[in-house]
Specification:
Blueprint (H helix, E strand, L loop, with lengths): L23 E2 L8 H14 L7 H14 L3 E5 L2 H11 L5 E5 L4 H8 L4 E5 L10 H7 L4 E7 L8 H11 L2 E5 L7 E2 L2 E2 L6 E5 L12 E5 L2 H10 L4 E3 L2 E2 L10 H12 L1 H18 L6 E3 L13 E5 L1 H4 L3 H10 L2 E2 L14 H4 L8 H7 L2 E4 L7 H16 L1 H13 L6
Parallel strand pairs: 1-15, 3-4, 3-5, 5-6, 6-9
Antiparallel strand pairs: 2-10, 7-8, 9-10, 11-12, 13-14, 14-16
The structure holds ligand T4K.
The site of ligand T4K has 23 residues, from helix 3 and helix 4.
Amino acid sequence: MSGLHKTVGDLAIFGGKPAFAEALHVGRPNLGNRQRLLERINDILDSRWLTNHGRYVAEFERRVAEVTGVAHCVAICNGTVALEIAIRALNLRGEVIVPAFTFIATAHALQWQGIQPVFCDIDLLTHNLDPAQVERLITPRTTGIIGVHVWGRSCEVERLEDLARRHHLGLLFDAAHAFACSHHGRMMGSFGDAEVFSFHATKFANTFEGGAIVTNNSELAARIRLMKNFGFAGKDHVVCLGTNGKMSEVSAAMGLTALESLEEIIAVNRRNYELYRAGLAELPGIRLVAYDPAQKNNYQYIVLVVDSAEVGISRDDLVRILHAENVIARRYFYPGCHRMEPYRSCCPQDGASLARTDLLSQSVISLPTGTAVAPETVQAICGIVRLVVAHRREVQRRLEPRSSEGATAA
Ligand code: T4K
């Protein structure tokens, strides 16, 4: 880290030296105990059993089921394939209601198998599906709802479960962000028909690439196990359509290592969250997305909601300023699935129906956290934001020629 900026002229976007010599990413992987991981990998190599339901995957599944308190966990090669398999195992067809304020994988997992995602707006407080609008979007073709626990904060689970029950719909939760989080004291993973986790490298607990489907429904779990292994029910005996969704042994070894460090990683994420909270307190127009202290949280996303009118600087200008300092802030989930292909062309929706998704996706910034981010780094990032906000008129004036040159935030 180079010196702290004191004046607007020190900002890298105006020619100063970047606050950080190297790029600071939002999702640097948490590595856990390297020695334990290498021991496990050596053991895997010695055993010459690299994939196909090995003992590390079995142990990882047991541990995930334990952490979430769910009867069945099926480890999958990544979160996207896990969604695809869960959708197929639940026999969803026709139309499925999903938020557009999510990572594109949620929508793709449907469209990939010829199911139409019907995008529903969100609640601006929770950032999750608005159950009232979900109900209005149900048609005779609707077979299911996929709620996404964005940032690990739960959907309005009870209202969605009630809707699904009354309308005989499948209910799946994309819990990619929500591993080790709770809702009303109950661990996420046990809601709806099934829930899907991602253990991608950028998630706070990772298996390099990986995911899992968890459910309390034994029949569903059995179907999922067949489907993730080409439909094999025994050697030379295929009983249904399937794919290759298996997790490898090294991935499971990484996952087990992460699970051993789970509490430490969460503690670091929480420390960073509290530092961001203190460092960004009482800034006009900038609000840190809060986690409910009464619940278990993994604190893996640090998300700012920027009210550009109140700050006097656009969200994208703030992102550009941070990038110049080598803080590679992200705009998850801009511009919303409905504004990306193929959905923009194939299922245009009238603007009004996703107005809150549009507003939020134009206001959010994700900031770096995780075990690779030290307390002084968080404080320095907060210092940059505070400097910009404190001198917003000067910053805006100096930015104006650049903004009109049409530069866009990455
Ligand atoms: N549903 C939801 C709600 C999701 O958020 C996701 C994934 C899924 C479903 C699908 O699950 P998976 O199939 O991925 O298991 C990233 C992740 O790739 C993606 O997993 C995640 N959500 C999404 C929110 O973020 P990108 O395209 O932004 O990734 P990328 O490559 O730009 O990496 C993000 C940051 O992490 C960068 O700042 C660089 C840094 N990084 C990344 C990798 C891979 C590292 O420092 N080291 C690394 O190894 O999507």
